[in-house]
């Protein structure tokens, strides 16, 4: 039988190491039958085995002689097998201290199991238990009991007699109530009964003096017993999120050791207790009261000077925010808010905030800030002092301008300010040297923010649905115009025979000529000569070179007043009628003559004195580079369609 065998020792004060037993590890060996005789290996005495690991095999039974053959066994691991029951013979393992039988199909426990005199740990997670025997009270040494993910509807009335119980994990069952004598568990420090069907807590729940970690989340509790105030002075972490609470428990603010509070997604109305923060201010680190109906924070709230995480926002996914308001109703923050100098993570999304206090800029440690879906019109000038801020989410407000020194936020990596009223970005915006993601969708920007070209770490920009308006100084002098196709571009192959009407190649350029008549998406000109458009997915079939950027809006190529107008030639006759441009016989340009055009580029004819000027309109926000391919480039349908 494969596996690992090792010797366990206890270090003595006078005799050095003292052998206390053998540990046998047979985890994940594919065993469907366990033969104790197979443990007889050289140098190993079966009766000295104190730890046996049979986790994650395919065992459906255990040998009946396990107790007589392994009398010294202390730790027995049976998790992840196919056991439907535990044999009664396990009750004879008088030295057994820990039994793990998680993730089996056990529906009933033998009564003999509850008479093990030294059992401290019993783990039965993920089975099919529907009830526990009243005899469980005889496990006087039991400290840790795991019953998660079973089908228990209640605990026996004797459950409170487990006088040594320290940790009870019983989440994801069908518990509707706890026994009345539950408060007799005087040593209970960790309690998890989340994801059950609890409707109330017994009065004795307030008699648990040792409680440190309590999770009551995802139940149906309408209130919490006020007696917890006097009995639970040791509470460190408390969660009653996702219940039916209508009132913030006033005694929570009196807990002198509390570090984490989770009360999100309830029905708590109005405000937190006025004294909140005066007692818990030195210990509280994390607080979540999001998705309630709070409309006010007490003036003492800023006394929570050691708090690191505050959540007053929504508990639903962002995709749902457009349909549901799920935060609180807070309209303003107290001026003392800026005193929380250790605050790193703050969520205030989906509230009714119309302003932030000037002291907000004193939150020097703040790294994450979400104030999306409020009614802010501006940010305080002090906002630019948030030197540690990395993520700033300002979506769905009414912000019209950012502070002039917004660029001082040099740690900023992610900025979402979509769905606001911004008309321009401050001049200091180009100082956001670490910015990687920028969302400016649905604002009122009229010009493309030139400062973005200086943000070298920027990898994602969204500028959709703004009010970009550009000057068109020569729009009345257009002599020829080609329409950019919305449905693709035909393939063109370089011709080897001269056109019948001329000995030169008649195509002006690949981009000027390869424009099929389609829906017009004209845009005005840019006046900056350095502006260029960008081609997407152009692949040179000879050299396997290609551009990685995109050209969404090549909308206009034209000649200006007084300049030569030349048509498109070198295309089939049946295609000529699809072009919205005058066709003339004398075309001195060929694609081999021109490889890159800038906006307002002026080219002189190679066979004459005519001058042709090309103007291109760039796609918003794309990199300024337009390589014009040779004629033997093939243009596939859809290559120039808009990219995000």
TrEMBL record:
Keyword set includes Repeat: yes
SMART domains assigned: LRR_BAC, LRR_TYP
Any Gene Ontology biological process: intracellular signal transduction
Sequence ranges assigned to domain Disease resistance R13L4/SHOC-2-like LRR in this UniProt record: 135-216, 336-418
Keywords, comma-separated and alphabetical: Leucine-rich repeat, Repeat
Region (Disordered): 538-570
InterPro entries referenced in this protein's UniProt entry, alphabetically: Leu-rich_rpt, Leu-rich_rpt_typical-subtyp, LRR_dom_sf, LRR_domain-containing, LRR_R13L4/SHOC2-like
Biased composition (Basic and acidic residues): 555-566
Protein name in UniProt: Disease resistance R13L4/SHOC-2-like LRR domain-containing protein
